Protein backbone atom coordinates (compact mmCIF):
# COMPACT_ATOMS: atom_id res chain seq x y z
CA UNK A 1 0.00 0.00 0.00
CA UNK A 2 1.57 3.33 -1.02
CA UNK A 3 2.45 5.85 1.66
CA UNK A 4 -0.27 8.43 2.26
CA UNK A 5 1.90 11.42 1.36
CA UNK A 6 2.91 9.82 -1.92
CA UNK A 7 -0.68 8.94 -2.79
CA UNK A 8 -1.79 12.49 -2.06
CA UNK A 9 1.00 13.88 -4.21
CA UNK A 10 0.09 11.59 -7.12
CA UNK A 11 -3.61 12.39 -6.95
CA UNK A 12 -3.00 16.14 -6.73
CA UNK A 13 -0.52 16.28 -9.62
CA UNK A 14 -1.62 18.22 -12.70
CA UNK A 15 -1.38 15.17 -14.95
CA UNK A 16 -3.69 13.17 -12.65
CA UNK A 17 -6.55 15.34 -13.93
CA UNK A 18 -6.15 13.69 -17.35
CA UNK A 19 -6.83 10.18 -15.99
CA UNK A 20 -10.05 8.35 -15.29
CA UNK A 21 -10.48 7.36 -11.64
CA UNK A 22 -9.77 3.68 -12.32
CA UNK A 23 -6.56 4.45 -14.22
CA UNK A 24 -5.35 6.82 -11.53
CA UNK A 25 -5.99 4.17 -8.88
CA UNK A 26 -3.86 1.78 -10.93
CA UNK A 27 -1.02 4.30 -11.17
CA UNK A 28 -1.11 4.77 -7.40
CA UNK A 29 -0.94 0.99 -6.84
CA UNK A 30 2.00 0.55 -9.21
CA UNK A 31 4.06 3.45 -7.84
CA UNK A 32 6.29 3.52 -4.79
CA UNK A 33 8.22 5.97 -2.63
CA UNK A 34 11.95 6.43 -2.02
CA UNK A 35 13.64 8.42 0.72
CA UNK A 36 17.07 9.87 0.08
CA UNK A 37 19.56 11.64 2.34
CA UNK A 38 21.20 14.89 1.32
CA UNK A 39 23.68 14.00 -1.41
CA UNK A 40 21.83 10.83 -2.41
CA UNK A 41 21.27 10.10 -6.09
CA UNK A 42 17.68 10.18 -7.29
CA UNK A 43 19.02 9.26 -10.73
CA UNK A 44 22.58 8.68 -11.89
CA UNK A 45 24.07 9.28 -15.31
CA UNK A 46 24.61 6.03 -17.22
CA UNK A 47 22.11 3.96 -15.24
CA UNK A 48 18.87 2.75 -16.89
CA UNK A 49 16.17 5.40 -17.09
CA UNK A 50 13.29 3.38 -15.71
CA UNK A 51 11.29 5.76 -13.49
CA UNK A 52 9.27 8.94 -13.78
CA UNK A 53 10.08 10.85 -10.61
CA UNK A 54 8.00 13.33 -8.61
CA UNK A 55 9.33 15.23 -5.61
CA UNK A 56 7.02 14.71 -2.62
CA UNK A 57 9.22 16.72 -0.27
CA UNK A 58 12.70 18.13 -0.61
CA UNK A 59 14.82 19.42 -3.48
CA UNK A 60 16.60 17.66 -6.35
CA UNK A 61 19.39 19.27 -8.37
CA UNK A 62 19.66 18.17 -12.01
CA UNK A 63 23.27 18.41 -13.11
CA UNK A 64 26.05 16.93 -15.20
CA UNK A 65 29.51 16.18 -13.77
CA UNK A 66 32.24 16.91 -16.29
CA UNK A 67 35.49 14.98 -16.70
CA UNK A 68 37.55 17.86 -15.32
CA UNK A 69 35.58 17.86 -12.07
CA UNK A 70 33.31 20.78 -12.86
CA UNK A 71 29.56 20.40 -12.37
CA UNK A 72 27.05 21.97 -14.75
CA UNK A 73 23.70 22.53 -13.01
CA UNK A 74 20.56 22.59 -15.17
CA UNK A 75 17.78 23.23 -12.68
CA UNK A 76 16.25 22.23 -9.38
CA UNK A 77 13.02 20.29 -8.90
CA UNK A 78 11.03 21.26 -5.82
CA UNK A 79 8.03 19.69 -4.08
CA UNK A 80 5.26 18.88 -6.55
CA UNK A 81 7.60 18.87 -9.55
CA UNK A 82 8.28 15.97 -11.93
CA UNK A 83 11.39 14.96 -13.85
CA UNK A 84 12.64 12.30 -16.22
CA UNK A 85 9.85 12.25 -18.81
CA UNK A 86 12.23 13.13 -21.66
CA UNK A 87 14.47 10.16 -20.92
CA UNK A 88 11.48 7.82 -20.61
CA UNK A 89 10.20 8.74 -24.07
CA UNK A 90 13.14 6.87 -25.58
CA UNK A 91 15.11 3.80 -24.48
CA UNK A 92 18.49 4.27 -22.86
CA UNK A 93 20.24 5.48 -19.70
CA UNK A 94 19.99 8.71 -17.76
CA UNK A 95 22.17 11.39 -19.35
CA UNK A 96 22.44 13.50 -16.20
CA UNK A 97 22.44 13.17 -12.42
CA UNK A 98 19.63 13.99 -10.02
CA UNK A 99 21.01 14.65 -6.55
CA UNK A 100 19.01 15.34 -3.38
CA UNK A 101 20.17 18.67 -1.94
CA UNK A 102 18.48 17.97 1.40
CA UNK A 103 16.63 14.91 2.80
CA UNK A 104 14.14 14.20 0.02
CA UNK A 105 11.21 11.89 -0.68
CA UNK A 106 10.29 11.01 -4.25
CA UNK A 107 7.37 9.23 -5.90
CA UNK A 108 8.54 6.65 -8.43
CA UNK A 109 6.26 5.82 -11.36
CA UNK A 110 7.70 2.77 -13.21
CA UNK A 111 8.55 3.03 -16.91
CA UNK A 112 5.88 0.48 -17.89
CA UNK A 113 3.21 2.57 -16.14
CA UNK A 114 4.42 5.76 -17.80
CA UNK A 115 4.53 4.09 -21.23
CA UNK A 116 0.99 2.75 -20.80
CA UNK A 117 -0.30 6.26 -20.10
CA UNK A 118 1.56 7.66 -23.12
CA UNK A 119 0.18 4.97 -25.45
CA UNK A 120 -3.44 5.07 -24.25
CA UNK A 121 -4.26 8.61 -23.09
CA UNK A 122 -4.22 11.56 -25.47
CA UNK A 123 -4.93 14.07 -22.68
CA UNK A 124 -1.92 12.78 -20.74
CA UNK A 125 0.18 13.23 -23.88
CA UNK A 126 -1.01 16.84 -24.16
CA UNK A 127 0.07 17.39 -20.56
CA UNK A 128 3.50 15.94 -21.33
CA UNK A 129 3.85 18.21 -24.36
CA UNK A 130 3.08 21.25 -22.20
CA UNK A 131 5.46 20.03 -19.49
CA UNK A 132 8.33 19.42 -21.92
CA UNK A 133 7.72 22.78 -23.62
CA UNK A 134 7.87 24.52 -20.22
CA UNK A 135 11.12 22.70 -19.43
CA UNK A 136 12.59 23.70 -22.80
CA UNK A 137 11.65 27.33 -22.22
CA UNK A 138 13.28 27.15 -18.78
CA UNK A 139 16.52 25.74 -20.20
CA UNK A 140 16.66 28.37 -22.95
CA UNK A 141 16.23 31.06 -20.30
CA UNK A 142 18.91 29.49 -18.12
CA UNK A 143 21.35 29.45 -21.04
CA UNK A 144 20.58 33.09 -21.77
CA UNK A 145 21.17 34.42 -18.27
CA UNK A 146 24.15 32.14 -17.67
CA UNK A 147 25.95 33.58 -20.69
CA UNK A 148 24.78 37.18 -20.67
CA UNK A 149 24.01 38.24 -17.12
CA UNK A 150 26.04 38.93 -14.00
CA UNK A 151 25.63 36.99 -10.72
CA UNK A 152 22.94 39.22 -9.18
CA UNK A 153 20.72 38.90 -12.24
CA UNK A 154 21.41 35.18 -12.52
CA UNK A 155 20.23 34.68 -8.94
CA UNK A 156 17.13 36.77 -9.69
CA UNK A 157 16.26 34.80 -12.83
CA UNK A 158 16.96 31.47 -11.11
CA UNK A 159 14.51 32.31 -8.31
CA UNK A 160 11.92 33.59 -10.78
CA UNK A 161 12.19 30.36 -12.79
CA UNK A 162 10.86 28.41 -9.79
CA UNK A 163 7.39 29.92 -10.33
CA UNK A 164 6.41 28.19 -13.58
CA UNK A 165 2.88 26.86 -12.84
CA UNK A 166 3.42 23.68 -14.87
CA UNK A 167 6.86 22.74 -13.58
CA UNK A 168 6.36 23.97 -10.00
CA UNK A 169 2.62 23.75 -9.24
CA UNK A 170 3.11 24.10 -5.47
CA UNK A 171 5.15 27.32 -5.63
CA UNK A 172 4.33 30.01 -3.07
CA UNK A 173 5.81 33.44 -2.45
CA UNK A 174 8.16 31.93 0.14
CA UNK A 175 10.97 29.88 -1.41
CA UNK A 176 12.46 27.46 1.12
CA UNK A 177 16.04 27.38 -0.14
CA UNK A 178 19.23 27.96 1.80
CA UNK A 179 21.84 30.32 0.42
CA UNK A 180 24.04 27.30 -0.32
CA UNK A 181 21.23 25.77 -2.38
CA UNK A 182 20.53 29.01 -4.23
CA UNK A 183 24.23 29.29 -5.03
CA UNK A 184 24.37 25.72 -6.33
CA UNK A 185 21.31 26.20 -8.54
CA UNK A 186 22.70 29.47 -9.89
CA UNK A 187 26.32 28.27 -10.26
CA UNK A 188 27.76 30.84 -7.86
CA UNK A 189 29.43 30.52 -4.49
CA UNK A 190 27.46 30.82 -1.25
CA UNK A 191 29.22 34.11 -0.47
CA UNK A 192 28.32 35.54 -3.88
CA UNK A 193 24.74 34.31 -3.50
CA UNK A 194 24.53 36.10 -0.15
CA UNK A 195 25.66 39.38 -1.72
CA UNK A 196 23.23 38.96 -4.61
CA UNK A 197 20.29 38.24 -2.32
CA UNK A 198 20.95 41.35 -0.27
CA UNK A 199 21.24 43.42 -3.46
CA UNK A 200 17.86 42.06 -4.57
CA UNK A 201 16.47 42.83 -1.12
CA UNK A 202 17.68 46.44 -1.35
CA UNK A 203 15.98 46.64 -4.75
CA UNK A 204 12.69 45.68 -3.09
CA UNK A 205 12.29 42.42 -5.00
CA UNK A 206 12.52 39.96 -2.11
CA UNK A 207 13.07 39.66 1.61
CA UNK A 208 15.78 37.40 3.03
CA UNK A 209 14.35 35.37 5.89
CA UNK A 210 15.38 32.42 8.02
CA UNK A 211 15.28 29.29 5.88
CA UNK A 212 14.56 31.00 2.57
CA UNK A 213 13.42 34.12 0.78
CA UNK A 214 10.04 35.81 0.46
CA UNK A 215 9.44 37.01 -3.09
CA UNK A 216 7.85 40.46 -3.18
CA UNK A 217 8.07 41.37 -6.87
CA UNK A 218 8.13 38.33 -9.20
CA UNK A 219 8.07 40.37 -12.42
CA UNK A 220 10.89 42.47 -11.05
CA UNK A 221 12.98 39.33 -10.52
CA UNK A 222 12.21 38.12 -14.04
CA UNK A 223 13.39 41.40 -15.57
CA UNK A 224 16.24 42.28 -13.22
CA UNK A 225 19.55 43.15 -14.87
CA UNK A 226 21.52 44.41 -11.88
CA UNK A 227 24.40 46.80 -11.76
CA UNK A 228 26.50 44.51 -13.93
CA UNK A 229 24.12 44.96 -16.88
CA UNK A 230 23.57 42.27 -19.48
CA UNK A 231 26.84 42.32 -21.30
CA UNK A 232 29.65 40.74 -19.34
CA UNK A 233 29.14 38.19 -16.56
CA UNK A 234 31.08 38.76 -13.38
CA UNK A 235 33.09 36.06 -11.60
CA UNK A 236 30.99 33.74 -9.46
CA UNK A 237 33.21 33.74 -6.37
TrEMBL record:
Residues 149-219 form the HTH crp-type domain. Residues 15-135 form the Cyclic nucleotide-binding domain. Pfam families: cNMP_binding (PF00027), HTH_Crp_2 (PF13545). PROSITE patterns: CNMP_BINDING_3, HTH_CRP_2. Keywords: DNA-binding, Transcription, Transcription regulation. It comes from the Bacteria. SMART domains: cNMP (SM00100). This is Crp/Fnr family transcriptional regulator. It comes from Variovorax beijingensis. The lineage of its organism: Bacteria, Pseudomonadati, Pseudomonadota, Betaproteobacteria, Burkholderiales.
Amino acid sequence: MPAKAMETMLRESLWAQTLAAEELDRVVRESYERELPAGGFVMRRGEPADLWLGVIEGLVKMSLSLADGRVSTFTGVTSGGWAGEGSLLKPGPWRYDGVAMRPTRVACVPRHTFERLVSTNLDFDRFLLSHINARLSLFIGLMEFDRLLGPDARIARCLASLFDPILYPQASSFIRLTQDEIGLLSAVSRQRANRALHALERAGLLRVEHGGVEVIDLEGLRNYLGEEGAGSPSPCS
